[in-house]
Amino acid sequence: MTRATARVAVPRATPRTTAPRPTPRTSARTAPSRPELRLVPGTAAAGARRHVRAAVAHRRAPFVLLVVALLVGTTLGLLVLNTAIAVDSLKATALKAANTQRAQEVQRLEQQVVTAGTPEQVVRSATAAGMIPAGSAGYLVIGPDGKSTLRGIPAPATRPTATPSGG
Amino acid sequence: MPTTVRGPGAGPRTTGRTGTRRSGGGGLSLDQRRSRNRWGLVIMITLLVLVVGRLAVVQGVDGSAYANAAQQARLHTYPIAALRGEIVDSSGRPFAYTVDASRVVADPTVVKDPARTALALTTLLGVPVPTLTDKLSQHTRYVVLASKISPEKVDEIQKLQLSGVSFEDDPVRLYPAGMTGGQVTGFVGRDGAGLAGIEERFNDVLAGKNGQRRVEVGSGGNPIPSGIDESTPAVNGSKVTLTVDQDLQYELDQRLATACKDGATTTGSAVVLDVHTGEVVAMGSCPGYDPGNYSKTDPNLLGDRAVSDVFEPGSVMKAVTMSAVLQEGAAEPSTVLDVNGHIQAGDHVVTDAHDHAPIKWTVTGIMAHSSNVGTIMLARKIGNQKLEQYMRAFGLGSRTGVELPGESAGILQKSSDWTAARAANMPIGQGISVTTLQMASIYQTIANGGVRIAPRIVKSVTAPDGQVHPTAAPPSRRVISKTTADKVAYMLEAVVGAHGTAPLAEIPGFRVAGKTGTAQRANPACGCYAGGGYMTTFTGFAPADDPQYVVAVNLERPTSSEEGGQVAAPVFADIMKYLLTAHGVVPSGKPRPDFVLTGP
Question: Which terminal CB of chain B, N or C, has fewer other CB atoms within 10 Å?
Answer without folding.
Answer: C
